Amino acid sequence: ACTAASAMLPCSIVDAFAAEGGEFTGNPAAVVVLGAAAPGAWAPRSPCEGAHWPEDAYLLAVAKEFNLSETAYVAALPAADGADAAALPRFGLRWFTPAAEVALCGHATLAAAHALFERGAVPSGACAIAFDTLHSGELVVEREEAASDGAGGARYAMDFPADPPGGDMRAAAGEGAVAGEACLSPANVAAALGVEDAQVRTVARGRFDYLVELETPSAVAAVEPNLAAVCRGMLANADAANADPAHPYPARGVIVASAGGGDGEYAGVDFVSRAFFPNLNID
């Protein structure tokens, strides 16, 4: 348990996206369930109206202590006046890495939903919950209970905002490109990620991250990034050179992905991906 404002707060470490029956697999996230606070002890943060949060410095310190890629903080929200009885239970949700608060995180949202259901924090009979977030709007997570024989465990479905990346940014990385644009050339991207030039198919920018598409899943598995080069080149310089009102946030990091399929271990997989966020102490 964590301690805040002289209260013990329940916390869990949840392995999200874990293989069925596989202990210590998946992507771990810490989840801290915030209880009711004395008036004025914690500060409400819009748009999670009604939720009371400890100071940001405390939330960051706890995330550093867990030292996982993400720590999720959840707080129950009061029902709105006149809300329909069938309205989804609502919780405020925020995510912190060991270095900063982030605007959106998938696996920690899944972990938070699982922790709330397993702890009995969700009203009996509810099969979905809604999270109010500071920067990503409403996120809904639905839970499908395990089969009557208990096989397979509960399953979850998450409704997240789409973040389609823009066009291939390598078009600006040719002759005459400024330093930031040039860092997105296939040769420089490949060098930063530790792969062959020919493996780089596309470099694009989404709302929060750069997306690098490689030719094969095995190339994604083989990535050995030079994290200093990723920070210095692909993130800082490229952002400065490619200022875009559609992408007002500094890039958090780089997602490296490819289509799945084919033979071998990726035959039944739609896609594979890895993420590197050295600016957020996630590598």
Automatic annotation (TrEMBL):
Keywords, ordered alphabetically: Isomerase
Family matches, as SUPFAM superfamilies: Diaminopimelate epimerase-like
InterPro entries: Phenazine_PhzF-like
Secretion signal, residue range per the UniProt entry: none
Listed GO MF terms: isomerase activity
Domain of life from the UniProt record: Eukaryota
GO cellular component, one term: cytoplasm
Metal-binding in keyword set: no
UniProt cross-references to Pfam families, sorted A to Z: PhzC-PhzF
Homology family: Belongs to the PhzF family.
Protein name: Uncharacterized protein
